[in-house]
Amino acid sequence: MKKFLMATAAGALMVSAASAEDIKLGVIMGFTGPIESLTPAMAAGGEHAMKEVTESGKLLGGSSVTPVRGDSTCVDAGAATAAAERLITSDGVKGIVGADCSGVTGAILANVAVPNGVVMISPSATSPALSSAEDNGMFFRTSPSDARQGQVLADVLMEKGFKSAAITYTNNDYGKGLADSIAAAYAAAGGEVTATTAHEDGKADYSAEVAALAAAGGDILIVAGYVDQGGPGIIRASLDTGAFETFALPDGMIGAALEANFGDEIEGSVGTVPGAESANTDMILEAIASDSYDSSGPYIGESYDAAALIMLAMQAAGSSDPSAYAGKIMDVANAPGEKINTGELGKALDILAAGGDVDYVGATAVELIGGGEAAGGYREIVIEGGKITTAKYR
Length: 394
What we know:
Oligomer: single chain
Helix content: 25-40%
Strand order of the largest sheet: 7-6-8-9-10-15-16
Mean pLDDT: 94
CATH architecture of the largest domain: 3-Layer(aba) Sandwich
Order of helices and strands: HEHEHEHEEHEHEHEHEHEHHHHEHEEEEE
Number of helices: 14
Low-confidence stretches: 1-17
CATH class of the largest domain: Alpha Beta
Number of strands: 16
CATH superfamily of the largest domain: Response regulator
Distance between the termini: 24 Å
Strand content: 15-25%
Structural class: alpha/beta
């Protein structure tokens, strides 16, 4: 619960008197790798929040915010760690929006962010293992843990009458954690898990993996993979051999590439992706629209929110020093305070400069709970007419 802070003249002066600076924020995402079609729009979402704050001229005495990108690759912990080290030691970033995938996020947190005392807010690292990571109060996320996604997807499958399922997952922290969560929740709900097997990304042929899954059987195949890597290969092999024709697709599989690759071949397939009915991403999507990347994928609003929380926390602390503002992130994210939506970051900065409180709602109805976790909701999707459509919110 946020501590109520009385507005004081001293507090207002602390912010208004801050010397203007060019604050650099890192944006670490897999610009190459298995979700490279999703990350350009995610990065643009976070960078739009930075642009909005800079143009307002209201952060810490008129400071500007400049994004500096680093490539996490999503899967190569060594490359991701090196990118984060460069951002912190060479570029001097004061916080990190990212990383994106769970394994590289954990590596950066442990090896770079915590030792250097730098705040990270991930928009998309969902592994349950990150909930208990040693973070010294420096790690937060705006997307909910896959412990929650597993329960939601299990509920979807049972409600739609899928009583048995095989599971294949990309062989990393994200895939394993998600598969375990789904399997446990599905079994607890009365579903039968016929097989749970890993697949390696980057293969040209997944017929052997699919044959083993087909032998185990199931009403549906759950593919906990990546839309730009092994996931589509598993689906294509399943369709070509007739092993499975309906699929359950968690967040890493949801993107325009899914429609482009399969269309109505996977009609009736279902999936889950973080989202809330009260989400307000229209302004962001309009601002970042581009012919050079797909802006229909997940985690764009979460990226905007991650950047916004860092900058609002800086204003609340009167400092861009991570050791000063880290303790303000939960404060600005939660009640009490005036609710702040997308496009209202300048308004929030004014309130904080005057010593007031804000309750940041943002693009994704942000609510942070113990340890900086996002409470989060999910959007249930279904493939209809070859398109990703929204069935309901949970």
